[in-house]
Amino acid sequence: MKSIEPSPAPVDSETLAASLKDMAARILAEAKRQGATAAEVAAGDSSGLVVSVRKGELETVEFTNDRGFGVTVYVGDRKGNASTSDAGPDAIRETVRAAVNIARYTEEDPCNGLADAEAMARRVPHLDLHHPWDIDVPRATERATETEAAGLAYDDRIVNSEGARVATARGCQAYGNSHGFLEASWGTRHSTSCLMIAADSNGMQPEDWYIVGRDPADLEDHVEVGREAARRAVGRLGCRPVKTGSYPVMFAAPVAAGLVSHLLSAISGRALYRRESYLLDSLGRKVATEGITLREEPHRPKGLASAGYDGDGVATRAKTFIDQGVVTSYILDSYSARRLGMATTGNAGGYFNLDVVAETRPVEELMRDMDTGLLVTSLMGQGVNLVTGDYSRGAGGVWIAGGEPRHPVDEVTIAANLDDVYKGILGCGDDIDRRGNIQTGSLLVREMTVAN
Amino acid sequence: MTSTDVIVSARQALWEPDEIGEPEVTGLLGRLSAKDIDTGELFFQLVRHEAWGLEDGKVKNGAFSVDRGVGVRAISGEKTGFAYADNIALPALREATEAARSIARTGHGGGTGVLTGTTAPVRYADVDPIASASEQDKVDLLRRIDAFARSLDPRVSEVVVRISLDCETNLVVATDGLMSGDARPMARFDVMVLAEQKGRRERGVSGGGGRFDAQWLFNTDAAEQYARDAVRMALVNLDAVDAPAGAMPVVLGPGWPGVLLHEAVGHGLEGDFNRKGTSAFAGRIGEVVASKLCTVIDDATLTDRRGSLSVDDEGTPGQRTTLIENGVLVGYMQDKHNARLMGTASTGNGRRQSYSYLPMPRMTNTFLTPGEHAPEEIIASVDKGVYAVSFGGGQVDITSGKFVFSATEAYLIEAGKVGPALRGATLIGNGPEVMQRVSMVGNDFQLDRGVGICGKDGQTVPVGVGQPSLKIDEITVGGTAS
User: Rounded to two decimals, what is the model's pTM?
Assistant: First the structure.
């Protein structure tokens, strides 16, 4: 990775980071005073602006402002947790007291406690995550208005709008524990989104689109957000039924990330030690097609999910969870690692920038490979059972026949067992969606049941 | 306790710690009363929450939290300005008020002199669920239910038990000088089990709760009943076969399968989508949108229910609103903002997740009224179809009307008889179409047990659902069996 020079943070940022760290230190001291044998604290302070415009008129202006802290105390092998939005000295004392009180009634668990001291992040890399957006309400309104207008003008069949929204937020999170680890990190997140409604004689179809980034300078053209939402909404018109049966199914990149997330959940510590996963004892086992590798890049500059240390203060590091279809690492925090008799992987709080690494191909080529089947562009519902791997969700998309898009499809379900789905991935598109924690191209699956 | 007493104690809890009084609050309302601001309000809230969790045979987790703050809203025509503060000290209140009123183009207009308390019937007791049982009693209860669930069947391999208790106090003061408050208890108990047999594992879940304290868990056998239910579901699912795929008749059991109404019609009848014309039900008042067997009601006035409200989060008394009467669309659910823009009155459905979110029209307890058929008759009328009795949740696309809900306990119906259990499957349909295909409604009406959580636009609120058994002549079942 190329090295990045830290950019000087504004003075108020440093002041706020220092005050959050100071508060965290006072909370840890209070925990010790009240008899905790170990403690950890997370404190945050974030603020932002959300402006939404609908049909050319300003609709809402929201100023967000969230503060608070949570403390976990350990009394021997017992644990208690408490949190509050209040940061006054009384609140610190009372919140710690509540946590210590809870630890009197919970039971001893030898897996409890801080992560091992030697696992703490020693040098936290600069990740370039803080790029405040100097945008005021009038300019945000103008941007949202332009976004929506572009969508409304895109096609006569765009008949209505849920509006466009411009949001910006910056926040500082401090984490400290009684090993002496105490860090604070800044981050920003900016987005523009739009939801357009197209209609024909069969009714209305809504579709949305958004862009998001750490740095406003990196955001793509906001006008394109309105157009893309409109393009997608118009593309939903003219849905036709399909015949229930088994077909190849391609998950378009924006929904493919969700499909990959279930695989990651199934190899996550909590699901494993609670035996709520269909992938128990899967280390070293093949759980997906050979062409798929899942790699975590926590130190990616400006990454939406980048982090120098995890929620336990443990150093994050680049690693592969699934290599050529084989599980090479579970996703563990210190507690789940101890439950499973393993070492933490630095994933308290989840994974940090997950890439699907595969030999990518143009989506048109994948469509030709599938010949006849469903390209899924939207998914609905919660029909994913990680215990059994059973998967059944509502879907909408485009029917592919003879390798070409034919007509939109709505109100169908797609179902299969996840084990067959991941082992049946035949290809990955080159249309990688970079807007989320999981970055993947479209994924073509050999066969699922499509019901209509 | 009367609603006047509730206001008095809410003022004590929310204002006194920061030495805020009526003069300070009316001063803030005055700042909000600019000429081109139609209405505005301050929503003060204090929520204390406690939860305990047992897994792996031990009470391993306990958590306590306090969240206290104020949300300030100013409305001018269709424009809303909103800000909030996570403390109730005067400087923070002033700052939030100035931010919220920044949508106004004019200076302040003087406004509010005296605050007048409103009255409304109280729908639940002013109790503190957290204080209603000792810590020791709560953790002992979790351990007892763990042991009980394991004793029911040797195939039970994992048990997770949770108790979650909330105590909320809020106070709404508006620029018209009206003041209302609410003291809302909430208790919830959940049991999740895993059963294992010959290498196969299946889950069962159950739980319940409502706006009361924790004593129902100690005075009745409710907790044992939840455990029995969770174990039964897991064991049933151990033998489940692949669900069928395609369109077919579906019979829904009573109670919690009322998720159907919440998704198929409920969201589509919320005022905001209808004002904007973005709901599949927009502009259809007076039209037939369901079979004539369907009467659908949203009712915040039910005593102690999870979705009940004495007053909503805008200070409007909770109400019983008929949405669909014998198949005809008769009403929407409204908050103040959408009601004003649509020239109607709020139906007491203005709700918000907390002070840091804007209120919007939301459901309370939404249900379908009973019909005349015995549930056995309904099942007997189906030659081949699915009988679904429990669901993991649902989702709706309000604009197109399509919705899904995912069965977690379901059975095949063959020749009018309930057959083998089916693996989980999602059902998908279009709200107005599916409601027209309701062909039989049972006489076995039930409300759910009090576990519903509804999400909309990033905000969650507790809700209730209910229905008798009913038959849908055709809906798509998302199984894998051909």
Answer: 0.96
pLDDT tens per residue, range B306-326: 999 999 999 999 999 999 999
CB contacts of B133 in chain A (<8 Å) are: none
User: Rounded mean pLDDT of B288-304?
Assistant: 98
Q: Which residues of B339-349 are buried (b: 16+ CB within 10 A; e: fewer)?
A: bbbeeeebbbb
Which structure tokens are listed for B240? Answer: 């489940």
Please tell me the distance in Å from B311's CA to the nearest CA on chain A: 25
Evaluate if residue A5 carries a pLDDT over 50: no
Q: For A5-19, A244-258, A382-396, B219-233, which range has the lowest pLDDT when averaged over its residues?
A: A5-19
The pLDDT, as a whole number, for residue B33 is 87
Find which of A382, A384, A393, A450 to mutate to test the B interface (most B CBs within 10 Å of its CB): A382
Q: Rounded to an integer, what distance in angstroms lies between the CA atom of residue B379 and that of residue B387?
A: 8
Instruction: Return the domain boundaries, chain A.
Output: 11-235, 239-452
**Structural contact between residues A431 and A441, judged by C-beta atoms closer than 8 angstroms:** yes
Q: How many CA atoms lie within 13 A of A239 on its CB side?
A: 20
Q: So what's the ipTM on this one? A: 0.95
The CATH code that applies to domain A11-235 is 3.30.2290.10
The pLDDT of residue B109: 63
pLDDT in tens, B159-181: 999 999 999 999 999 999 999 99
- Domain residue extents for chain B: 3-238, 245-478
Distance CA B419, CA B425 (A): 16
B283–chain A Cβ distance below 8 A for any pair = no
Pick the CATH number of B3-238 from 1.10.1520.10, 3.90.1150.10, 3.90.190.20, 3.30.2290.10: 3.30.2290.10
Across the interface, do A206 and B278 touch by the CB < 8 Å criterion? yes
User: Taking a contact as any Cβ pair under 8 Å apart, which residues of chain B between 339 and 368 contact chain A?
Assistant: 356, 358
Contacts of A184 (CB under 8 A, 6+ apart): A17, A18, A20, A21, A172, A173, A174, A175
Q: Which of A137, A382, A414 sits opposite B102 (nearest CB)?
A: A137
Q: Are B423 and B479 in contact (CB under 8 A)?
A: yes
Q: CA-nearest residue of chain B to A161?
A: B278
Could B85 and A57 be called an inter-chain contact, meaning their C-beta atoms sit closer than 8 Å? no
Tell me whether residues B479 and A415 touch, CB distance under 8 A. yes
Q: Is B75 on the interface with A (CB under 8 A)?
A: no
Whether A105 and B62 lie within 8 Å, measured CB to CB: yes
Whether pLDDT at A385 is above 60:
yes
> What's the token pair of residue A221?
């053209």
- What is the reported pLDDT for A1? 34
